Amino acid sequence: MKQKFNIIKSTCVPLPLENVDTDQIIPARFLKATDKKGFGENLFRDWRYNEDGSLKEDFVLNDPTYGGCILVAGKNFGSGSSREHAAWAIAGYGFRVVISSFFADIHKNNELNNFVLPVVVSEDFLAELFTSIAADPKMEVEVDLPCQTVTNKATGRSERFEINGYKKHCLMNGLDDIDYLIQNKDKIEQWEKCNK
């Protein structure tokens, strides 16, 4: 799942629902596993599948019209419990970016820790994205992490997004927290030596 981020340009999967919580992202019955593998197939499980395991054809992830590695979601995405499994499922499905006008803080950090970039945009820009995707499901969005901009390629409109400088560095270099510490081992050892 560790992939360096730079500029991502992709079509989008629209999920224009507000208050999507982590139990809807990955139901609690799948939380027994401690390995990240296999969670993508259960992303939005109860919305994607009928009780007999067949696909619900009217759900957006089952609609071949939409695809790409960017999920565009409604306001207040990732609310509810703090389960990291929700971010595992999003990453496991193949999403690299989630765009919303608001994320629950813990979920936002879980996404960053799992190499999924949460991009916060204005409600107006989010509404425009949904309109553009509905008009042309093949339209693309460009997310430029170095410049911290997101651009609706259908309209040319861009917005700047915020990201913690440390997390930006880690994403751009494909580093998790442990990798970052190992990369700075000499500096840490030097500091310890000087501060005994």
Describe the structure in brief.
By secondary structure, this protein is α/β, with parallel strands linked by helices.
Q: What's the structural blueprint in terms of helices and strands?
A:
Blueprint: E1 7-10, E2 12-15, H1 22-25, H2 45-48, E3 70-73, H3 85-93, E4 97-100, H4 105-113, E5 117-120, H5 123-135, E6 141-144, E7 149-152, E8 158-160, H6 165-173, H7 177-183, H8 185-194
Parallel strand pairs: 2-3, 3-4, 4-5
Antiparallel strand pairs: 1-6, 6-7, 7-8
Key structural traits:
four-stranded parallel sheet; 16% strand; 8 helices; 196 residues; alpha/beta; Aconitase, domain 4; four-stranded antiparallel sheet
Polypeptide structure, described:
- Pathway: Amino-acid biosynthesis; L-leucine biosynthesis; L-leucine from 3-methyl-2-oxobutanoate: step 2/4.
- It is built from 8 helices and 8 strands; from the N terminus they run ββααβαβαβαβββααα.
- The chain is an alpha/beta fold and 196 residues long.
- It has one domain: Aconitase, domain 4 (Alpha-Beta Barrel), CATH 3.20.19.
- The strands form 2 sheets. It has a 4-stranded antiparallel β-sheet, covered by helices on one side.
- α4 links the parallel β4 (97-100) and β5 (117-120).
- The protein is globular.
- It starts with 6 loop residues before the first strand and ends with a helix.
What's the story with the biggest beta sheet?
4 strands, antiparallel
Radius of gyration: 18 Å
Residue share in β-strands: 15-25%
Low-pLDDT regions: none
Total helix count? 8
Structural class: alpha/beta
